[in-house]
């Protein structure tokens, strides 16, 4: 449920006096999230950074003129994309000339002329389109952060061809030089932040580009599994286990031991019937990229040796 944001003028219209507003803030019932804008206090204090950013976007839209369009990382958040290690303490908007770029009062103001098809509406707010947002964030962040966002864009239905078209219009803009690699590398088949970061890890270590969400076939020709990252020529399947399948992320009505047993049988079938090596990567492995890349190369070597023994 979206948290209601209330401006000072709206509070007056509802019958609150200035004294009552101050009393609610003092008691913690309301939180002052922006000058002249309030939100439910307990709800605000319970929010994570992402939730607070969403509320801050609503607060900013109450205080800016209608020409401001939510853009960049703030637009990505409203589109529902995943992000990783991107600061969320500043709301980002794009405004039409002759406004000037500036950062003030927790708002980063960009200036650009937006075409009609580069703006959409989300919950009553004008927001840059998915493809425009994809290019903006690719220009704004380092490769790994940009790939996570761009994967999320494509996963949500953004059109890569349209994004590349918009990129060409911005090819001389700040940050454009490093935006293109992230856009071209993006893949909507990546289902999570962890899978996106794992793909970046493989890329940086010169490993082949894997097939994402690949069907794995058994001896009878039927699909026995769907793999996160399949290195087809290397006969290796890499599973990213960032979803806590056996812990708090598991269903409460399923015995974790039963889940673990079924997963082991699944991996055995992949090895025995599909002839693939299986490597499981978890979140902590992403913080040891050299070691993780070495594990994958070792799996490639084992698969190669096993294939030649069988031949």
Question: Main traits of this protein?
Answer:
single chain; 311 residues; alpha+beta; Endonuclease, Chain A; four-stranded mixed sheet; 20% strand; elongated
How would you characterize this protein structure?
By secondary structure, this protein is an alpha+beta fold. It has two domains: 47-188, no CATH class; 194-310, Endonuclease, Chain A (3-Layer(aba) Sandwich). Helix content is 45%, strand content 20%. The protein is built from twelve helices and 13 strands. It has helices at 8-13, 18-26, 41-46, 49-63, 72-79, 130-140, 143-155, 160-169, 176-185, 193-204, 256-273, 289-310, and strands spanning 5-7, 30-34, 37-40, 69-70, 91-95, 102-104, 107-111, 119-122, 125-128, 211-217, 223-231, 236-240, 277-281. The strands form four sheets. It has a four-stranded mixed sheet. Strands 10-11-12-13 form a four-stranded mixed sheet. Strands 1-3-2 form a three-stranded antiparallel sheet. Helix 6 crosses helix 8, helix 6 crosses helix 9 and helix 7 (143-155) packs across helix 9. The model is unreliable at 243-252 (pLDDT under 50). It comes from Tenggerimyces flavus. This is Type IV toxin-antitoxin system AbiEi family antitoxin domain-containing protein.
